[in-house]
Predict the structure.
Amino acid sequence: MSQATAAATMGVNETPTSDPLIKIEGLTRYFDVSKPLLNRVIERVPRQLLRAVHDVNFSIHAGETFALVGESGCGKSTVARMVAGLIAPSAGSVSFEGVDRAAARSAAEERKIRRRFQMIFQDPFASLNPRWRVDRIISEPIRAFGLAQDKQEIDHQVGELLKVVKLDPADGAKFPHEFSGGQRQRIAIARALSNKPEFIICDEPTSALDVSVQAQILNLMRDLQDEFGLTYLFISHNLAVVRHMATRIGVMYLGKLVEDAPSRELFKDPRHPYTRMLLDAVPDIDMSGRARTPVKGEVPNPINPPSGCTFHPRCPFAFDRCRKEEPALLPVSENHFASCHAVAEGRIESLGAGVQE
Amino acid sequence: MSDPLLQVRDLVVEFPTRRGTLTAVDKVSFDIAPGEVLGVVGESGAGKSLTGTAIINLLEPPGRIGGGEVILQGERIDNLPQEEMRKIRGKRIGMVFQDPLTSLNPLYTIGEQLTETIQTHMKLTDAAARIRAIELLSEVGIPAPESRIDAYPHQFSGGMRQRVVIALALAANPVLVLADEPTTALDVSVQAQIIALLKKTCAEHGAAVMLITHDMGVIAETADRVAVMYAGRIVEIGPVREVIKNAKHPYTDGLMASIPSLTHEAERLAQIEGSMPRLTAIPDGCAFHPRCPQAFDRCRRERPELLDADTTQAACWLYAKEEAVT
Ligand SMILES: Nc1ncnc2c1ncn2[C@@H]1O[C@H](COP(=O)(O)OP(=O)(O)O)[C@@H](O)[C@H]1O
Ligand SMILES: Nc1ncnc2c1ncn2[C@@H]1O[C@H](COP(=O)(O)OP(=O)(O)O)[C@@H](O)[C@H]1O
Ligand code: SF4
Ligand code: SF4
Ligand SMILES: [Mg+2]
Ligand SMILES: [Mg+2]
């Protein structure tokens, strides 16, 4: 059994002892959202920066599924794009097996790291080139990384990949528009698997799909994880999906990680007031009548975020310190972190039960 | 039970094409009682929006009503001239759509739009209409409505805009509100607020609601009864708790089991193989039969109508009395 599969079969609340596969430290990203220079000069307005991701830290161990959850605009995709190396951080680092990607010593080393990463996006319609046949789409990473040269070998690999995602090898000759949304996401997954990555970043992979198709894709992703010992960074705004998939969950609000805990524990004993609010906002589909606090307010404008703890205008626990001082992500217990003054000062008690039955 | 507020009988929506007529809504029938919230749920393409659009007579050509009747408070409205129908929309049927900007004019203030709707349907002076508009804004939870009333739609957040749309929909005290995916574009924390608001304000105004959504959670939170649509047909209809917790139709049952839960852990999600057929390839008999784990011979030949299935009605041959299984 490989190290990765050993971790995958490990109980979700056990602490992995090995070094993390991915380590994210102080990850920060600003976007320049200023008006064009001429307008700035005429209207005498300063440059404006939007803090999309601010000082985010977390680690992912081999075989784990680390999920990022939060409402739109909280910075999930920006984290994903930095981890994937699609955009550069303004500060902080992403390390793979202890090697800082940005500091990779040579192009060859960076390429070697890149081969072990892949990404799956929300929109299977936009992420597949409509003019390419499916076999060419799937084999593109094989060619790009020079993993196989002769046509017969590539065709064979593409056929196998199509079978792995439960499509027909004959589907390779078709174009993306001939497939349904769920089938296109299977093609995107086959493509992502083609360079035999160890780590896959999945940004809202089922958010555009209907629930019955979502179930097929989530099951497939779990099967592939077991089969190939994959590690996932799994991004979704849907808490139930995240609960189903993740071993560990990070909750984001306005660019910051506000809570980070093993999946089971986050649902059993959420500590950060924002996590609790999110859980209370999810419709009670089981009609269990569980007690919930009505949600108040909306996410503020990220260009001009509130002072101190950015959640303070909506927080039922807010006190003086929250308006002045930004809370740090501190341990609540071994392996469970929250960034909240009230939690740190022991003003927010453990729920004990959470939403679990 | 009181007389139904809305009766939909064998409604058909079709699209003529070069290769024949496509039937997107196929003999759909249901009632809505006064003050009731009827949820209409199903996966994308099931025909939910077209059903709603046909009821308010806003189908875009070449789409057309190909049969059936729509009866509002005892009066047939599916064959009314557009002029008459326009009076019913806004006055007797309020509307809330997914994108609030389809209901709001960017060039006019919120106040102008509200007072116009109020004065079209009620005889009120400008001053009285403005007071009524402020009341409505306050009712839907817009903070400081006296000053916000003169703002333009773009000055509101998505959630606040949807509140304004709900105020507009209720402005003329309609008997029915048609809400098509009213919270789909919103984040979960805003969605929770809008669902609660829609439910509360409609109840206070005595308006029934036809709530269309793909989200079973929204239905569970809001509806009294729910109709489940598949491939243009209603496959199950009944009290919301029964349909959600105790579904009778194999499709509803599979759909419910495929939704990940916030409160239970599962190794795997139940899975319905395949996907909903395209309009050009709707199977004969029961449209669900190629995906149904319980399909038998009759399912491939004959289309099932809604049959009594204990606490709900299901369009499924498993509930045919004379051919009871086993
Ligand atoms: N290229 C960009 N230019 C300007 N702002 C951006 C850009 N990409 C993202 N943002 C902003 O950064 C914030 C985080 O966005 P994103 O990471 O996409 O959030 P999420 O994926 O959680 O919805 C948002 O306020 C968004 O508007
Ligand atoms: N103008 C059109 N021409 C042909 N088919 C259409 C048209 N508009 C909608 N349809 C089809 O009708 C079906 C039902 O659509 P709709 O009522 O919008 O579904 P839902 O709201 O349940 O997602 C879909 O298969 C859709 O593709
Ligand atoms: S730091 Fe203060 S405002 Fe922020 S979540 Fe904690 S209690 Fe609430
Ligand atoms: S009628 Fe037959 S195929 Fe259709 S749902 Fe019932 S058992 Fe399944
Ligand atoms: Mg995103
Ligand atoms: Mg629709």
Summary: The two ends of chain B are 36 Å apart (CA to CA). Chain B touches chain A at residues 43-44, 157, 159-160, 187-193, 195-196, 214-218, 220-221, 241, 244-245, 254-255, 258-266, 268-273, 275-276 (CB under 8 Å). The pocket of iron/sulfur cluster (ligand 3) is lined by residues A 273, 309, 311-312, 315, 317-318, 322, 327, 340-342 (CB under 6 Å).
